[in-house]
Amino acid sequence: MSLAVNSLTVEIDGKRVVDDVSFSVDDGARVGLIGESGSGKSMTALAIAGLLPDGAHATGSVQWNGRELLGLPDRELARIRGDEIGVVFQEPQTALNPIRTVGRQIAESVRIHERLSRRDAAARAILEASRVALPEPETIVARYPHQLSGGQRQRVAIAMALACRPRLLIADEPTTALDVTIQAEVLDLLQSLVANDGMSLLFITHDLAVLSRIATHGVVLERGRVVEAAPVADLLSTPTSPITQALLRDATATLWRPGGAQ
């Protein structure tokens, strides 16, 4: 399955925040959207997932395996999200329900999409917690989000997104709020899960060094427009746009150094 974004434009209260953006994510590919804060990368991801905020309007085309997603009824979009397309957000604390155990939240997706019994879904939650390397998964599924560390909460969010084995994962700055050591662990985990499940990946970040760790192709956004698109190795070695050159200079602020693209 593949994702094709063509001439995507997003306006919020009359202000254009995404402007004629086009790119594709082929089956099994790892593509990154990168840009500074306000570049439109997260809004692009939200438009693809059908999760734009109130007051936002998208035009253009977003096709998933040949099916147009823009304008699709919310009920049909909800069926695709989680089942075929998984989404991980930047701050899991806001994505997780504070009054429900993490096990129930992991199990909810498989109960909805795979129609499992409560008992089978609970067992599946333990399996998914183990798959994202949460310690003592049988114990941790009974805990609440506030009882977990930031890295553990992000692993729960990843488990929720991948529980139904989607074909595409959209990860919107999933490591930004974590220290560099935990960033490395989460990125390694994502890379392993994507490879093992044969998923495609759309990874959103402001950090070119992080992008080099997880993606093979990058799309650079500035003020809502695509200014450069190339293999990540080329973005690291021969960036052509001023914004990519600036992102390359900033890349040394993280644990990884330019040149580590895979």
TrEMBL record:
Keyword field: ATP-binding, Cell membrane, Membrane, Nucleotide-binding, Transport
Molecular-function GO terms, alphabetical: ATP binding
Subcellular location: Cell membrane
Source species taxonomy: Bacteria, Bacillati, Actinomycetota, Actinomycetes, Micrococcales
Organism: Microbacterium marmarense
Record Gene3D superfamilies: P-loop containing nucleotide triphosphate hydrolases (3.40.50.300)
Protein topology in the membrane: Peripheral membrane protein
Domain ABC transporter intervals: 3-248
Domain of life of the organism encoding this protein: Bacteria
Coiled-coil ranges from the UniProt annotation: none
Principal cellular location given in the protein's record: membrane
Classification via InterPro entries: AAA+_ATPase, ABC_Ni/Peptide_Import, ABC_transporter-like_ATP-bd, ABC_transporter-like_CS, P-loop_NTPase
Oxidoreductase among keywords: no
Matching PROSITE patterns: ABC_TRANSPORTER_1 (PS00211), ABC_TRANSPORTER_2 (PS50893)
The protein's name: ABC transporter ATP-binding protein
Homology family: Belongs to the ABC transporter superfamily.
